[in-house]
Amino acid sequence: MFGMIPFVKAAGRGLGAMIKGRKGKETLEKEVKDLGLDTSGVEIEVDDDGGVSVIGEAVSQEMKEKIILAVGNVEGVGGVEDKAGSVAGGRESQFHTVVSGDTLSAISKKYYGTWRLYPEIFEANKPMLSHPDKIYPGQVLRIPAIETATS
To answer: Would the pLDDT of 22 be above 90?
Structure first.
């Protein structure tokens, strides 16, 4: 995946802190820890201008993508530079930015050709999502690569 993953700076979870420098790094690290994500081998860097990077070797492709989403879906973060690999590898997911009117069923139909696979998207975005109906415009979601009857 490597490269810049865009996020909507004005959307996301408000953590009540400026996402810049050392304090921003601490805020994002706490967010990831609170979500229970495994950051083994991964560092979150935040520069003085609010630029966020994820670097190192994550335990899996899935965990790397979840860490990127956890820090990117925070109010004040406009993008995350993906500079991380993964020890265990895995298929890369696509990312989808939620727009007004989106549902997980509609997103499933768009990417998989059927609405019935929305639980796959929900599961792929746990623990950041607590309920399939609780998505919001500007949020970025993982769309995992899965085998479908139409692929």
So the answer is: no
- For 49, 100, 105, 148, the CA distances from 39, given in Å and listed in that order, are 23, 32, 30, 31
85-143 residue pLDDT tens: 999 878 899 999 999 999 999 999 999 999 999 999 999 999 999 999 999 999 999 99
Residues 6+ apart with CB under 8 A from 32: 39, 44, 67, 70, 71
**In CATH, which of 3.40.190.10, 3.40.50.300, 3.40.640.10, 3.10.350.10 is domain 94-143?**
3.10.350.10
Nearest-angstrom CA–CA distance, 17 and 25: 11
Q: Where in the chain is the domain with CATH 3.10.350.10?
A: 94-143
In this structure, the chain runs to a length of 151
